[in-house]
Q: What sequence folds into this?
């Protein structure tokens, strides 16, 4: 069973060397990466030499001296890819980018607290923890302990030399989105590293992998949802 996400988001993260002060909404308009109408809706948080942060229709942009990030909460996520490619392929092709991340996360609700408890026990059984593990299995549901955060890693996915894919699973604490007794949060991080910093190679990899990466992330999450659905 696939549970509809209460919220989802996609993110692109670049690690390298950046000048936060130049990343301003007016600069994006000037180079036609966002249009004038979108510029009027910009929510500017901060522009500084050490940090720039603002929100446009496509998503939230945050730039620090060593990190660029854009997070989008609505499909089509490819619009954030187009913006990043426009910046670093066309405007700033000499930026020393050393690492690239494609993230996808969802919050979703299972059908019952007991179902989430069973999922936690399946992913992180208490038996290997011996005597202490048995103390986690209290008779009163609210007193039971168990999984709070799990990270699984796939090294060198898709045959590449460096990088990894990490899948994070934890109870959702977003009470504004899901009931905290049944909510689950999953994040998939597809991480790529370059042997030498190079914006052109980074953008080539990002353009080539973006759609497939999101598709793979959604498939991983769907498989866990399917497993959880059998625990009702």
A:
């Amino acid at each position: 069973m696939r549970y509809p996400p209460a919220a989802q988001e996609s993110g692109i993260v670049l690690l390298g060397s950046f000048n936060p002060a130049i990343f301003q909404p007016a600069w994006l308009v000037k180079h036609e990466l966002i249009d004038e109408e979108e510029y009027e809706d910009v929510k500017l948080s901060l522009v500084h030499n050490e940090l720039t942060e603002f929100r446009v229709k496509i998503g939230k942009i945050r730039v620090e001296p060593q990190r660029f990030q854009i997070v989008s909460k609505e499909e089509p996520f490819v619009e954030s890819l187009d913006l990043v490619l426009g910046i670093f392929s066309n405007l700033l092709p000499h930026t020393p980018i050393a690492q690239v991340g494609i993230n996808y996360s969802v919050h979703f609700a299972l059908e019952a607290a007991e179902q989430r408890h069973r999922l936690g026990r399946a992913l992180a059984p208490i038996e290997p923890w011996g005597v202490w593990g048995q103390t986690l299995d209290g008779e009163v549901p609210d007193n039971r302990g168990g999984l709070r955060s799990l990270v699984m890693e796939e090294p060198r996915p898709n045959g590449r030399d460096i990088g990894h894919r990490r899948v994070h699973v934890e109870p959702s604490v977003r009470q504004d989105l899901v009931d905290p007794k049944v909510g689950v949060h999953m994040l998939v991080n597809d991480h790529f590293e370059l042997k030498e910093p190079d914006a052109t190679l980074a953008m080539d990899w990002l353009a080539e992998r973006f759609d497939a990466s999101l598709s793979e992330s959604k498939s991983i999450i769907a498989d866990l949802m399917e497993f959880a659905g059998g625990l009702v």
Q: What stands out?
A: The chain has a mean pLDDT of 92. The CA atoms of residues 23 and 205 lie 23 Å apart. The beta strands are 7-16, 43-47, 52-55, 60-64, 67-72, 97-109, 150-155, 164-171, 183-193. The helical segments are 25-30, 36-40, 78-91, 113-123, 130-134, 199-229.
